[in-house]
């Protein structure tokens, strides 16, 4: 009877060891799967963040180009206004300059 009980205990211990081994293997699989899933989630989040950042940068560049275009157009208009100063205004400016030079230096 005692030998039978010892054998039963031995079987129970062996079964417990087997369950522990299987559990350990299963736990390692679960951990590996979790690591892979975490890496996949991280990669997805990183890709989404990169796409969003690229979109924001692209929109900022487009907006900057639009604003620059407006400023350039205004500058071109100002240049044309300066280039289109009438001969009369040029002559008047020349006369004023000559008069001031003459006043400063007298009639020498």
Automatic annotation (TrEMBL):
Keywords: Coiled coil. Residues 65-92 form a coiled coil. This is ATP synthase archaeal, H subunit. It comes from Clostridium saccharobutylicum DSM 13864.
């Amino acid at each position: 009877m005692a030998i039978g009980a010892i054998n039963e205990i031995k079987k129970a211990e062996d079964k417990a060891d087997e369950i522990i081994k299987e559990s350990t293997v299963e736990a390692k699989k679960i951990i590996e799967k979790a690591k892979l899933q975490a890496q996949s989630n991280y990669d997805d989040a990183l890709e989404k963040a990169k796409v969003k950042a690229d979109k924001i940068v692209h929109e900022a560049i487009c907006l900057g180009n639009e604003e620059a275009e407006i400023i350039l157009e205004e500058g071109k208009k100002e240049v044309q206004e300066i280039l289109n100063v009438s001969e009369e205004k040029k002559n008047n400016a020349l006369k004023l300059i000559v008069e001031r030079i003459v006043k400063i230096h007298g009639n020498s």
